[in-house]
Amino acid sequence: MRRSVQFQSPEQVEAGAAGARGGSTRQQETLRTEFGFELPRGYLDESGTVHRTGVMRLATARDELVPLRDDRVRENSAYLSVVLISRVVTRIGTVEDIHPGVIEDLFASDLAFLQDFYRRINAEGHTRAAVTCPSCDEEFAVNLAGGRLGES
How many C-beta neighbours within 10 Å does residue 26 have? Predict the structure, then answer.
């Protein structure tokens, strides 16, 4: 399910109407529905290949409701995040068949990363985190979506 949706704010709709009447041109914003990421450790597949980059899409209401009917989740509520993450991650490296078994095989730090990433893109709408330098107390934002430490 890969798509981009075009939406307009009320101001853009009005500007578009004005443009149709000979006023300013209509502008559109793109709603981002997929976000790339880089796992801290990486997914180790059966052949020994490590996959680090991937894509997560925005969750739908169905994505959050369907896991609640899963017997594994009913038996162990901690399994909810495994099922939910497996529904919204569309690719890890070259692996495109993402299912709960793949998520179960992630290192704990990678699962924690994906849980935080999910929360950021679905609740906050971005992948930036506010941080403070421990040496100089300077505050700045970092993008959690990708890049190794020290890279820009």
Answer: 15
User: Among 111, 147, 103, which residue's Cα sits nearest to residue 129?
Assistant: 147
Tell me which residue of 34, 59, 48 sits closest to 127, measured CA to CA.
34
What amino acid occupies position 73?
V
Taking only the tens place, the pLDDT of each residue in 10-67 is 455 455 555 555 554 445 667 889 999 999 999 999 999 999 999 999 999 999 999 9
Least confident of 6-20, 76-90, 113-127: 6-20
* Secondary structure element (H or E) that encloses residue 29, with its range: strand 29-31
Are 123 and 13 in contact, with CB atoms under 8 Å apart?
no
Question: Residue 95 carries which DSSP code?
Answer: B
Q: What whole-number distance in Å separates Cα of residue 122 and Cα of residue 88?
A: 11
Coil, strand, or helix at residue 97? coil
User: How many angstroms separate the CA atoms of 17 and 11, rounded?
Assistant: 10
